[in-house]
Amino acid sequence: MLALRLARGTHPLVLTRRLLVAAAAAGVGFLLLCTLGYAVGHPAQSSASVLRLLWCVLPLAATVQFAVAVARTDPSTRPRPGLSAIGLGPVRLTAVAAASTAVACTLGSMVALLFYLHLRGDITGLPFDGAAAELLAADQPMPLAAALTLLAILPVVAATAAGLALRPRSAPAEPEGVEKPVPSGLPWGVALVAVGLAIETYAGRGGSGDGLPLPGSFDGNPAGVLAGWVLTAFGLALAGPGLTYGCGRLLQSVRPGATRLLAGRVLMDESRRIGRPLGVVSAVLSGTLAAAALYASGTGPAAFGPLTGLGAALVMACTTATLLTAALESKQCREHTTEALLRLGAPPTVLRTAALMRTGALVAVFLPLTWIVAELAALPLTG
């Protein structure tokens, strides 16, 4: 109830972000229900149904990441003076954030259920009722308990992840003048990318034909290629903070001025906050470019199914939105520093130029890296 009351008084942009989480949850819920419909309509193909369910893990994970990022930027969950006196301490605010995340995801799941029943023809009186009756096995009764169990996965996982991400921590005080440590994930990330690309190359040349079907019509990817891409994606996400920190170092090299020093220092300080979402976006883009190269070469599928397209669109949209939300969180954390610089007489053009420098440095590093990884991933499949 407290989460609902706080939601009524929040800013429209905050509500928009929560509605985007609900929309992503609706997409994931619809994919899960379609997988259930396939299992009901094809009882003899249980292994294919399980594999289709596993394919839904990618959009589900991307939606959970987006929901956690939105919860971190929610102003109603930030500790403020006076809130502890009325019982809203850090622990209670964390519970409110988890509840708000669960409410948004549950709303999306309910919308997915209504839309699914409408396309099956169970709910009539609206346009396109029963339009996908054959695809969704409308001739078979839908197991309601299984449907509700699948729809409950995302709210529970997202709320738990939000609670863990926002739980109160007692961080040790850092002495002034001491530089933050370099993120330690870069060597491990590079190693995972190399191992993932090696597995993809071996699996692509092996031609084992052991396929994992997507929830559409794309079912020709070898399992080894998929495992290699997952390792590559984890490697890029793990290496993202270290690469962002390196971009900050690069901006401050060779006799920098005040603007370059400011831009580099911000990247170094915010490397952990924006580096991981940036690495995830790089992984998704590299996978998209590799799939496009495979499709253009004629060695891939003739067409992608609609549910495959929905899942890919959810992953790309959620990862991009997570990156933008992390950038917003970084800006909010720098508000006091920005106000102090403006009070000291720093012109606003310096702050804008520093922001452009940060963006340019990240694009100059991550864009070629994404292209190289995509080319190396697609080479064993198209060659």
From TrEMBL:
Transmembrane segments: 20-40, 52-72, 93-117, 144-166, 186-203, 223-245, 278-297, 303-328, 349-374
Swiss-Prot/TrEMBL keywords: Membrane, Transmembrane, Transmembrane helix
The keyword Endoplasmic reticulum appears for this protein: no
Top-level taxonomic group: Bacteria
Name of this chain's protein: Uncharacterized protein
Originating organism: Streptomyces gardneri
